[in-house]
């Protein structure tokens, strides 16, 4: 994903990149093709780049373990300065280019920001009921006969008492 910046006029420019995710060295949960839309603003020695990438992803639900497909949108902004880099360059979103630079390669940035945008929590749907902790039945599609009342803490002392009585 290389943008040629030599002879680029001041003002706004738009680019679109489309390719397979393995070109970005991205694997599971990413699959298929991605599409990046770029808005580049050039002003003298400064380039501001906004990148929005649409990915296809395949996740495993944290609650019911089913595999589901989803879209992931990753966006970031990067400022390129054609200046001498200061001693300390800690900022994640500022890059320094030499005045002779004739291109910008955004492959690594797109990849890094894609990885950062993968959510920690993955649910096939907001109200996924998950699996029964006892028998493993998928509670989204069917009911099981497990006694779930037992899990209710209010009943616990009573159940314990019942167990004791049964033992004696
Ligand atoms: Zn689920
Ligand atoms: Zn069950």
In short:
With 168 residues, the chain is mainly beta. It contains 2 helices and 7 strands; from the N terminus they run βββββββαα.
Can you describe what's shown?
This protein is mostly beta strands and 168 residues long. The chain folds into two domains: 2-116, no CATH class; 130-168, no CATH class. Helix content is 13%, strand content 38%. The protein has two helices and seven strands; from the N terminus they run βββββββαα. It has a five-stranded mixed β-sheet with strand order 2-3-4-5-6. A two-stranded antiparallel sheet has the order 1-7. β3 (30-43) and β4 form a beta hairpin. The longest helix is centred in the C-terminal third of the chain and has 12 residues, at 156-167. The chain is elongated, with a radius of gyration of 26 Å. It binds zinc ion (2 copies). The site of one zinc ion has 6 residues, from loops.
Number of strands: 7
Question: How can the largest sheet be summarized?
Answer: 5 strands, mixed
Q: What is the succession of H and E elements?
A: EEEEEEEHH
Low-confidence blocks of residues: none
How would you classify the helix and strand content by structural class?
A: mainly beta
Write out key terms for the chains shown:
single chain, 168 residues, mainly beta, 2 domains, five-stranded mixed beta sheet, two-stranded antiparallel ribbon, 2 helices, 7 strands, 13% helix, elongated, binds zinc ion
């Amino acid at each position: 994903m290389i943008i040629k910046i030599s002879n680029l006029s001041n003002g706004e420019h738009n680019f679109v990149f489309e390719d397979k995710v393995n070109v970005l060295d991205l694997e599971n949960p990413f699959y298929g093709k991605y599409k990046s839309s770029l808005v580049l603003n050039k002003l003298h020695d400064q380039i501001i780049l906004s990148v929005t990438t649409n990915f296809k992803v395949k996740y495993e639900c944290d609650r019911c373990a089913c595999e589901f497909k989803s879209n992931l949108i990753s966006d970031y902004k990067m400022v390129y300065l054609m200046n001498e880099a200061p001693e300390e360059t800690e900022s994640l979103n500022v890059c320094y280019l030499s005045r002779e630079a004739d291109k910008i390669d955004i492959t690594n940035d797109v990849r890094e920001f894609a990885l950062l945008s993968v959510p920690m929590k993955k649910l096939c749907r907001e109200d996924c009921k998950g699996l029964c902790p006892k028998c493993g039945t998928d509670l989204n599609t069917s009911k099981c006969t497990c006694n779930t009342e037992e899990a209710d803490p209010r009943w616990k002392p009573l159940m314990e008492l019942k167990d004791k009585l049964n033992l004696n």
